């Protein structure tokens, strides 16, 4: 749209985008020849691969271990969500012990009596 001579305002109105977005996209196109957004490196990880394996190993050895216990054993200052994310990446789900065993129909009848 900019190549045939459309104004930035007209292009922004046609695409329902801000004029700033159109200007930035056009500048990138003229500078690099592409409009693809660059992906960044993201945030640096606090845990090493060895720490990650240790987290998963602890959860496999003792399924009832808590996140705070794992965090203390790893020795790196990480939040509990990090531990949950590492366990989810390893396809491990949380296992909570039963508060009470489910009652069978026979147990229910005996309990009512």
* N-to-C order of helices and strands: HHHHHH
Classify the secondary structure makeup into a structural class.
Answer: mainly alpha
Taking the sheet with the most strands, its summary is: none
Helical content, roughly?
40-55%
Q: What global shape is seen?
A: elongated
Number of helices: 6
Span from first to last CA?
A: 81 Å
Radius of gyration from the CA trace?
28 Å
Stretches where pLDDT falls below 50 for ≥5 residues?
none
How much of the sequence lies in strands comes to under 5%
Number of strands: 0
- Mean pLDDT, as a whole number? 85
Give the helices and strands, then pairings.
Layout: H1 8-15, H2 19-32, H3 49-61, H4 67-74, H5 80-89, H6 105-112
Helix pairs in contact: 1-2
Protein name: HTH_Tnp_Tc3_2 domain-containing protein
GO molecular function: DNA binding
InterPro entries: Transposase_Tc1-like
How would you describe what is shown here?
By secondary structure, this protein is mainly α. Helix content is 54%, strand content 0%. The protein is built from six helices and no strands. It has helices spanning 8-15, 19-32, 49-61, 67-74, 80-89, 105-112. Helix 1 crosses helix 2 (19-32). The longest helix has 14 residues, at 19-32. It is elongated. The model has no long low-confidence stretch (mean pLDDT 85). One of its GO terms (biological process) is DNA transposition. GO terms for molecular function: DNA binding. Pfam families: HTH_Tnp_Tc3_2. InterPro entries: Transposase_Tc1-like. This is HTH_Tnp_Tc3_2 domain-containing protein.
């Amino acid at each position: 749209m900019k190549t045939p001579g459309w104004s930035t305002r007209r292009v922004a109105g046609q695409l329902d985008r801000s004029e700033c977005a159109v200007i930035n996209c056009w500048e990138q196109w003229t500078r690099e020849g592409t409009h693809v957004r660059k992906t960044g490196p993201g945030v640096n990880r606090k845990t090493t691969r060895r720490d990650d394996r240790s987290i998963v190993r602890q959860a496999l050895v003792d399924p009832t271990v808590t996140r705070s216990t794992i965090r203390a054993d790893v020795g790196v200052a990480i939040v509990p969500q990090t531990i949950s994310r590492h366990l989810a990446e390893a396809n491990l789900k949380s296992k909570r012990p039963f508060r009470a065993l489910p009652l069978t129909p026979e147990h229910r009848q005996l309990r009512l009596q």
